[in-house]
Structure formats: C-alpha cells, structure tokens
Amino acid sequence: MITEAVEERETYLNASYGIKSWLLTKDHKRIALLYLHTITFFFFLGGIFATLIRLELLTPKGDLVSADTYAKLFTLHGVIMIFFFLIPSIPATLGNFFLPMMIGAKDLAFPRINLLSWYLLVIGGCFAMYAMLAGGVDTGWTFYVPYSTNYSNTYVIATGIGIFIAGFSSILTGLNFIVTVHRMRAPGMTWFRLPLFVWSNYATALIQVLGTPVIAITLVLLIGERTLHIGIFDPARGGDPVLFQHLFWFYSHPAVYIMVLPAMGVISELVSVFSKKAVFGYKVVAFSSVAIAVLGFLVWGHHMFVSGQSVYAGLAFSFLSYFVAIPSAIKVFNWTATLHRGSISFATPMLYAFGFIGLFTVGGLTGLFVACLGVDVHVHDTYFVIAHFHYIMVGGTLMAYLGGLHYWWPKMSGRMYPEGWAKLSALVIYLGFNLTFFPQFILGYLGMPRRYWTYPDEFQVLHVMSTAGASVLAVGYLMPLIYFMWSLRYGPIAGPNPWGATGLEWRTASPPPAHNFEETPIVTTEAYDYAALAAMEEAKVG
Amino acid sequence: MDSHTETAELREQFETPGQQKEVSTLGMWIFLVTEVMFFGGLFLAYAIYRREFASAFAVASNTLDVVVGAVNTAVLLCSSFTMVLAVRAAQIGSRKALIWFLILTIVLGGVFLGVKAYEWNLKFEEHHVPGPSFHLEGTGEQGPAQLFFSLYFTMTGLHALHMIVGEGLMLFLLWQAYAGKYTPRYYTPVDIGGLYWHFVDIVWIFLFPLLYLIARHQH
Questions:
Q1: What ipTM describes this predicted complex?
Q2: In chain B, which residue's Cα lies nearest the Cα of A515?
Q3: Where exactly are the structural domains of chain B?
Q4: A contacts of B40 (beta carbons < 8 Å)
Q5: Residues on chain A touching B35 (C-beta within 8 angstroms)
C-alpha cells in the first residue's frame, strides 16, 4: 500500500520519455503543448516587430528605420501574428487539449491528422521565416494586387507558400474538431449539454473548413499571377484586381471570427466558473456562436467600401455587417446577466474575462463605426481601424487566451501559477493595452493613416502615449512567460478541480492520464450544473 | 479469429468499429467540402470573366477539341464505375475482384491523364498558352482570350493534380488489397478512397461543359 502511494501516478507527461515520444505523439494533450510552444515563439517574434514599429513611431521623423524596412516590419508583424499566432492560438492549444476532454473522449477523431496539422504549421512558419531572413516582405498582410504581383521586390511567394501550408493546418484542425464533436461524445453528452467552449470551437471549425480553402486558391492564383502572369488579376488582360480583394476578404473576414469565437467560448467558461452560476441563456449563447459563423461569411465587402465596388453592394454589406452586432451583443449581455447574483471570485482568469468583456465591447462598438459607409470613408485606412481590430484581436482574443491559459494551467501542468504575480500581470496588461491602443482611435479620427513611418508633429503626443503603453504591455506579456515556467517546478500542487468547475475535464486527475479518464464518463446533467456537482462531491465524502 | 482482426483494426480512441467507420467517412465528406470551396474560387473567377468577355471566351473555347474532351469524360466516368465495383468487391470480400477493379480504375485514370497531356501539348503547339507568343485567330480581344486559357490551364491543371493524388491513393489501396488487408468487416479506406475519386470525377463533369461546350452552337 505504501509503495503505491509513493509511486508516481502515470500522466500524459510521464507516460513515455524522449524527444521522439513528443515529435511522434498522437496524444492531443501533447500536441496541444507542441502548439503552445510554437505559438508562444511566434507571439514573441511578432511582438519584436511590433516593438520596432512602436519605436519608429516615437518621433515624427523616420529616424530608426527606412520606409522600406518599416513596410516590412508591419507586414511581418501582421503575417506572423495573424496566421501563426492568432488563428491557431485558442483552438490548437486550449481547444486541442480540452475539447476531447470536455466531451468525455479519449482523443480527437484523427490523432495522426492532428499531429500532421502541427507539422504543417511549423513548415509554413519555416517558409515565412525564410522570407523574413532572406529580406522580408513589404506588401502588408493583405497582399493586395497589383503591388504584390507586379511591383514588390520582396519575398511574396515564400510568404504566400507559408500561409498556404499553415492554412491546411487550420483546415485539418477544423475538420478534426467537427468530426470529434459529431461522433466522439461520451454517453449522455447531448448537443445541449456541451460546454459553450465546445460550441464556439465547433462554430470556429465550420469557418475554418469553409473559408480557409478560399484563401488557399487565392494564394495559388496570386503566386500564378506573380510567376506566370496568368492575368486573373491583371487589367491589361481584362483581369480585375478587385476580384483579389473579394477572394481575400471572403476568407479573411471570417478569419476574424476564427480568431474571436474560441475566445468567446473561453469567456463563457470563465464567467460561469467564477460566478458559480450556469451561463444565462445557454442555448442562445450556443446558437449565437453559430450565427456569428454564418453571418461572418456575408460581410466581407465592408473591407472594400472604397475599392470601387458598387455602391449597392456597399450598402448591402454595411447593412449585413450591423447584423453581426446582434449575436455579439447577446453574448456580452448574457455574460453580464450570468454575473447577476453570482458568487463572484476575482481570481486571475476572471480578471482576464472582465478585461475581455470591456475591451471586446469597445472593439465591437467601434466596429459599428467602420461598418457604417459614410463614417468608414473618413476612418478607412487610418489608425482608427488599427485600434478597432486590436481591441478585438488583442483586447479580445489575447485576453481570453491568457485567461484560459491561467484557468486550465493547473489541469495541464498539475500545478498552480502564483496568484499574486498573475493578478499583477493581468492588471499591467489591461492598463498597457488601453494606453497603447486608445490613443490610436483619436489618432485615426484626426486623420493619421496606417502604414506610414513618419507623421506630422502634432500627432507626436498620442504616438508617444501609444509607444509608452506598448512598453508596459511588453512587460505584462513577459511576466506570465516567467512565472508559468517557475510554477512548473515550484507552483503549489493543484488538485483535480481547483476552481470547483463542472466540466468533465475537471473530473480527472491533474495532469490527466494519457487516456484522459480512468473510465469513459457518463453524463447525466446539463453543463454548468453546480448543484449537481455539489451533490456529487457530498456523495463522495459521505 | 474474426473478433481478433476486428480489434486489431480498431484505433484506441474509438469504442466500436462502427464509430470508427462513421468517423472516417464523415471526415472525408468534410474534406470534400473544403475541396468544393477550393475549386469554388476558380469557378467564381470563371463566371465573372465569362460574363464580361463572352465572345472572346466563346472563340477560345471553340479551339478545344470537343471529341477528345468527350472521350476523356467517358473514360473518367468509366473509372468511377470501376471504382464503385471495387467498393462492392471489398464489401462482399472478393479480394480478386477488388484488385482487378482497382487496377482498371488506375489504368482508366492514367488514360485520362495521358489524353490531358496530349491536349495540353496541342495548346502549346498552337500558341494558345498565355504569354508573349500567345495568338488566337478570330478575336480582337487577345487579353481576355488569354484569360480563358489561364483559367483552362489552372482549372484542368489543379484537376489533374487531384487525379495524380487519386492515382497514388489507388496504388496504396491496391497494395493493401493485395496484402489482404480488406475484409467485409473492414474496408473503410476503399470506401473513402472511392468518395475522393468520385469527387474528382464530378469536378471534371463541371469543367467539361464550362470549358469545352459553352459556344458549340456557334460552330
């Protein structure tokens, strides 16, 4: 009996050893950790570009880098952050780790394809980094023709191939999630018992599967145009550059929802656990994810109000864009309603959730400004747009990602992070974020265009504020990197369910065994049924 | 014995062989959806330019040999038929028939690709490849005519690429079938390989009229 107690319990982390056991693993939890390392690398790489951008903009003159270098910096910042960090971020790490566990499955439906998708991301990343080291790319992450096909002398093709390959990684993750949710649920886990994180990842997967192939063919045509001059986007042969924009945004607008829907799923989990209440209006929140996925495909033209597309198309796209506000607002209202009379705890993940709700609301409301035809003509291509989407992508997705990482860290590592440091970093990130990006709304409204490395003197105060904020933000992001690593060794041991959460992932040990559960769980209650959880705990004690 | 082979083929994340089969099939269907979206971008480009440059597209389309195209369509349809028979053979556990129908499918696929190569070569000889030496008789719109051929080469090229991948899949199935891996209890790879093959076939069924037949009445 004593030897049994001393003997180390087998977990997914010590089930096998050696570098091969990681590089050839089919365990979704290990693959999630591979992704976690990869995207952390890309996040800080993209962060270096952001730092250089903000340093250049400290002064009105172009004194740090040349115009060409500046163009490469913002392009690489966008490419790395969007395709190699934000798109894989929550689904490929937290989703990969927890989606199978939340539905009571032993693994994803296609474990080998799951591993393949990680390799594809890495290979795609290698192409992007080759382009970066060979001399960079300066087209902006949007690759608009004819500049990208006929004029740019930079590494457009290598970057395009990198994104093409990374796109297949995203497609395969989406495919895996859809099949897993349809076919791998534990007995009793009906669709309306699924945690909302699963619903939002399911909706995301639909977009990944339907949207990403379109960017793939767009990149094929772009590369064809650049190398073979096939003429599809070339007016000299009757081709139309605006077609490129249509094809590009048909994916890249829904891609915004690939980035933010999983974040919304994380927030639903956090708000429920840390107020110990079921999410208000579960079904409506679940369906709002699907509604966002569907509506997301109908609004791409709002990126093209000044491209010369028909005014009537512009009107329709503007009108449809407003509709996205409905499911988004439903979520915000329902999270807020969940808090009502809840037993609220201000643990770090909840601080991030509050941060998300506030910042996402600002990002969403300014989205209505830019969805409005008349206003958009004024703010198009200015810092207003930059601020708007950073409020969604950084204030929204990144806050939720960090919140989720803190929330699930004890399950992934078996140890708690240091709560004091974590709270401090959440605060620093929140303040730093607002100081960085709020001034950019004003800058943009005053007419500061995006993608310029110099500006008139009167904009300097706001730019200095923004750069100061970025410095604070950088400190905030480095702190979790350090204390997460610290906690792997010195963090207090976490029990199976440190937060008193209801999800199936908390019913197994921390860190979980290789096959997730000792035996397949049988689900008898709705998601977020805290009363049932309390009864179960009581029965166990009794 | 039987139950042993059954569990040997059951991957550890599944509870039952039935679940495993459903999962593989659903996965392939979703993959085919992504393929529809992939080709969809090209069909969109085609639709826009066809509407904008109807006459140049008509002239360019009429240079394609409709007889060769039709024969090739028939060849591909036959390969789909032999594929169905291969799946059927796997279902009833006839290893010999499975092997022969897979070989037939591979041969017919090869014939299709060979004919396609012949047609492409013809276009090169006739100066119908977009570029500096492009020339098409019968239309003043040389630019849009090149656009037609760009679409022709891109669409048939990507289709041929999918055919080549399909041939690879068929060779894999043939090797596995030869080794006796497939039984009436387990033939999922044959099933989903067939789905892929039929999809590639269907893409051609759309390409053939769009590229070859749009202006036959003007002949």
A1: 0.94
A2: B13
A3: 17-212
A4: 213-214, 217
A5: 213
Q: What is the DSSP letter of A406?
A: H
Report CA-CA distances (Å) from A295 to A192, A262, A306, A312, A464: 22, 16, 22, 19, 38
Tell me the nearest-neighbour CA distance from A50 into chain B, angstroms.
Answer: 33
Q: What is the dihedral of CA B74, B78, B79, B81, to 10 degrees?
A: 140
d(CA B11, CA B25): 15
pLDDT digits (tens, 9 = 90+) for A154-187: 999 999 999 999 999 999 999 999 999 999 999 9
Q: pLDDT digits over A52-101, tens only?
A: 999 999 999 999 999 999 999 999 999 999 999 999 999 999 999 999 99
Among A28, A175, A202, A223, the strongest candidate for a mutation testing the B interface, having the largest count of B CBs within 10 A, is A175
Domain ranges of chain A: 25-541
Interface mutation vs chain B, best among A237, A244, A522, most B CBs within 10 Å: A237
From chain B, pick out residues whose CB is under 8 angstroms from the CB of A108: 13
For residue A346, give the 3-state DSSP assignment. Answer: coil
Beta-carbon pairs below 8 A across chains A and B? 111
Q: Report the CATH architecture of B17-212.
A: Up-down Bundle (1.20)
CATH class, A25-541 region? mainly alpha
Cis peptide before B184 (omega within 30 of 0): no
How do the residues of chain A divide into helix, strand and coil, expressed in percent and rounded to 5?
A: 75, 0, 25
Segment A85-141, tens digit of pLDDT = 999 999 999 999 999 999 999 999 999 999 999 999 999 999 999 999 999 999 999
Contact A230 B52 (CB under 8 A): no
A213 interaction partners in chain B (CB closer than 8 Å): 34-35, 37-38, 40-41
